[in-house]
Amino acid sequence: MDNLLVLPSLVTVLALILYFVVTLNVGRARFKYEVKPPAMSGDPNFERVLRVQQNTLEQLVLFLPGLWLFCLYVSPIWGAGLGILWIVGRALYAWGYYQAAEKRGPGFGISSLSGLILLIGALVGIVMALIP
Known about the structure:
Helix 1 runs antiparallel to helix 2. The chain is mainly α. Helices cover 82% and strands 0% of the residues. It has four helices and no strands.
């Protein structure tokens, strides 16, 4: 295995751990705010915790392939760096959103921008690889 792929592999595991944690937080919030399954609404505090988990899952669908394609076609070091930035942004998003919906913006912006750079960079890298 290429040693440089260790970095995006680590970022992938860290992103999945982050998702695992926000998923656990939904279970804790269900208990704390007494929202019994299969209910998806109730206390606004529970709904914010649930929304963090749902939005993080939605973003993972774009982030993980973007990360790996960027790392394969552009740079695993830069890709891993952008991946860490995405994780930091997601953590800030969660922390802010847990407090109040208005506080989610900076983290959302950081993670969205880094994810977009990974996606566009991957596209450019793939196109450049097609050009003889």
